[in-house]
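assembly run, all chains below
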Amino acid sequence: MKHDFDVIVVGGGHAGCEAAAAAVRAGARTALVTLRETDLGVMSCNPAIGGLGKGHLVREIDALDGLMGRIADQAGIQFRLLNRRKGPAVQGPRAQADRKLYRAAMNRAITSMPGLSLVLGEVAGLHITSHGIRGVRLADGSELASQAVVLTTGTFLNGLIHIGDMRSPGGRIGDRNSVDLASQIRDIGLGVGRLKTGTPPRLDGRTIDWDRLESQPGDEQPVMFSFLSRAPVARQISCGITHTNTATHDIIRENLSRSAMYGGHIEGVGPRYCPSIEDKVVRFAEKESHQIFLEPEGLDDHTIYPNGISTSLPEEVQAAYVHSIHGLENVQILQAGYAIEYDYVDPRGLDSRLAVKELSGLFLAGQINGTTGYEEAAAQGLVAGLNAARDATEKSPVTFARNESYIGVMIDDLVTQGVSEPYRMFTSRAEYRLSLRADNADQRLTPRAIELGITSDERTRAFREKLEELDTARTLLAGAEVTSRALNKAGFQVNVDGPKRSALEALALPEATAEQLEALVPEVALLDASILKQVQNDALYANYIARQERDVEALRRDEAWEIPEDFQYSLLSGLSNELRDKLERVRPRTLAQAGRIDGMTPAALTLILAHVRREVRRRA
Amino acid sequence: MDTIYALATAPGRSGVAVVRVSGPLAREACRQLAGDVPEPRRASLRRLHDDGVVLDQALVLVFPRGESFTGEDVVEFQTHGSPAVVSRLLTALSRRDGLRAAEAGEFTRRALENGRMSLSEVEGLADLLEAETEAQRVQAFRTFDGELGRQVSIWRADMVRAAALVEAGIDFADEEIPQDVRSEVEDILSRLVAEFRDEIRGVGAAERVRSGFEVAIVGPPNAGKSTLLNRLAGREAAITSEIAGTTRDIVEVRMDVDGLPVTFLDTAGLRETTDVVEAIGVGRALERANAADLRISLGDVADGLRMRPDDLVLVPKADLPGSSEGLRISGLTGEGVSDLLTHVSSVFGRRVGEAHLATRLRHGEMLSAAAGYLEEALSLLYRGEDRDELVAEAIRSGVRSMDGLVGRVGVEDVLGEIFSSFCIGK
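ok done. output:
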């Protein structure tokens, strides 16, 4: 059969763009199908990229030569490194982005990409045969054939918008939803659930009393997302900060019954992590005030995104509570806040390539898998697009492990645990957090990307140069010895009678700085500041990482116990029905993965191990 | 899956011997030996035949799959407790295809693999089978009942709570996290450290309950140590004679003292000696006595013997006229022996009281690793620098120790340890 494409990506959001770009980099003839060209790179929620855990994901996408980091750097209008005062492992880059600049940059990246066809149209259904997926059917009746399909339909599957007790079908305000596709997905036999997410009312910045509000500027030395970027391109701005008060909370409390969520109109489960203001008022009843960031949506856009007050209350109630807030007394609401409810697919039906286990050639990425956030979506898009391309061109799968990337953590969480609320990345989800830092994402992942042939020459060259610089710096610092007396005199926190240290060890001392070291080892001045910082970060955690290595030995042995794909959990007589169901759905690949399933007990692990071992003996 | 068999009762002459067969061919083996397969769970008298020869008349008990100790088809032959009968029956079983002798602990292992027993039940069972005294039985049954597992999940939940409080400050940097969480974290961690330390102290006592306490009887040659031991044992356990230096090796007598397993050690007399063999005996006696849980010195305390609280110095040979003042004892007449036993019982009884849930060396190691990690977290917190990622890392390591303790990770290691102590036929 003749194929139009190797890979078809459905959807032009953050997952879709990244999936298409990854498929192209992996050498696949790729089509991206979306409703309108203007859909590419739309930020439908808050105008910001990155944050804690999320910033790590963006760095990893960039390390694999993905788009998001570079686009965000081009569109960034305020850069802040979160947790700047905490350790480097938990610092996350974040930026406010100008919506229009972001969309324009993404549009340029996608439309100028050789080997990528942009198809405008609505996907009405999937073309499924007994051999797996064979392409998609468009609403106008035409068909596109391909070896693999990546679905990134976001919140559009059976999307339902709620503003107070009013509801209307739609995937985003002003867009249709996809009902046909949703029913086809249910038919494939994938578990489907319902989730919800909320947005705040959008405000007219010209009617905010900025002079009375606290202002939050960006960092003096902006930290970029991409390893290839040096400095912001767009003009930089500040955000405003204000707070809700008891009057605000009273208004919300009085009208709770009219909220879509509290009025019982929504069956989906919302995220605990960015709760609606209704949620906050109810759950943290003792708090008299909640912080709100007033985030400009763009340089030439007066729309303000009030981060922290997403809601599904009726419009007039939104107006009333917004007007009770300091500085917003006379504000004009441009667009009422709304909640959206949508179908998601139980990701436990996917393997670690994000491929549907039961239907060869179909990949799912982004919000459809129950995640929330642009970064989570984009990272999944990259993995799904890359693997769809490799699947279509008959190359081996590319998977990511928990100990090498946040991407690996996220995908393992999704396919092992499933989701019970929209999944958002956090640094605390990564048990190898000290080694999975935003600053070393390139060293963790770019070598692999180069090997896979998915990096540009520019990236490859820049990375190799950086490695050489790091090597030079490490050699220099490891070779230079300093006495404790000298260190102490230079301001290091060290006892004068201590042993001699290498400059590298000195950098790992608490609160050591490069400037202090420069006074003792003048060559340090010749090193690039970012290179030095990186070496210091590595030194800082070296002991902890070594210890962790020893600690996780037992875990690694569990990782080595592979569970056969056709393992019959029904034969394990000692399992509870609940656990058996979970195991059947997830089909863990290793004993360690089985151990991560929620509710797993040592007794059940023993059973599994015993049977796996028996199986190994039998097959030997 | 092989069908396995083994003698389930102690080897040697006895009233009844039980041979247990488990696996898919158990019923077939029963049919061939007993002529038919009796009704499940009903003791049935059968003549056992092999090669046309009658082996014995035996009670045959059949347990169907899913309702037996191992979860498999099980047949038990209760024969006369004659070594010859047992040996002939085992030979008959070994001749059948698909049947083989069981390895140590294999029946229990199958019970575990078939979900008939939990890990902690198996762990407790191993101890229960070994239990000789009441204290051992009580301790083993507590493990069998899974008490430690329940406590570990409570501790684990506390650690997860502490970690969550720390993590909130890291992952929600832009939100206003209440400042007082640090004191809650400190409270949780310091309480856990204290509880772990308490448990760790108890492990030594629990180990003693399992392996027995040791009481070393020491003193100069010919002080009557062996006579005392014999009196304690109520039999001639150690060779006694009038010639000084008779006991060169260490003689042990294991006793049940008020439910506690106690081993009395009769050691070589401590004196300067030119006899090479005796000198070795003296050195060994000192070493062993210093390592024991309690020392009873008959007469003056010898050089090199480290006496500790609860240890006793007794005046030996109280039966001889003119012996000096002090606590007197005589192995010959029995004077002071019952007081000695009361002392031993009360000292060890008190130590047993320290044993809680952690009963094995491995438990102690995991708990002390966890305590170490939590102490590290506390010291980072007290230092007041913002190194929350390291605090969280330390707590996470603590959680990992808990997971290792109950086999949530490294099940293999836990199994290996437990089954190493099993004997064949169980």
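Chain B touches chain A at residues 1, 66, 71, 109, 112-116, 118-119, 149, 163, 167, 170-176, 385-390, 392-393, 396-397, 400, 404, 406-415 (CB under 8 Å).

Residues 212-352 of chain B form a domain with the Rossmann fold fold (CATH 3.40.50.300).

not gonna interpret more than that til we talk
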